[in-house]
User: What shape does this take?
Amino acid sequence: MSSVYVDEAAGSDETGKGTQELPFKSLAFAVYSSDASDNIKYLIRKDATVDYDEATQSALKKAKKGADGIEKKKKKAEELAAREDGERKAERERKEKLLEESKKIVLEEDSTLPKTTKVQSQRHTPVELQLFG
Assistant: This one.
């Protein structure tokens, strides 16, 4: 029978491994992280001044519900990430298609219009010009 350690005061759900040296912080995460077999003994303590005690049945029942919640959150986050990745990919493809279409545009001068001429202003201040024609 293997043991999984939970220290609610000094443990960590991010870096914990369930060992006595690196315990989990919450019983729910310990249940979520460990195998689903019944041969696991969950040892828990509230702070470092007391010894580890075996988790009660009611605490395990509550932890299993918490573990289900953690699993649902993880699946939802994965689905959201996949959906966002798909949206980003579709947006990237749309932009690439638009870029390729814009590369096909050719600007040509209309030969029926008079030729353009450059005009230089003698003033150093901006001037508004109205063009007619």
The first strand starts at residue 2 and ends at 7. The radius of gyration is 34 Å. Strands lie at 2-7, 40-45, 53-54. The domain at 2-69 is CATH 3.30.1910.20 (so0334 like fold).
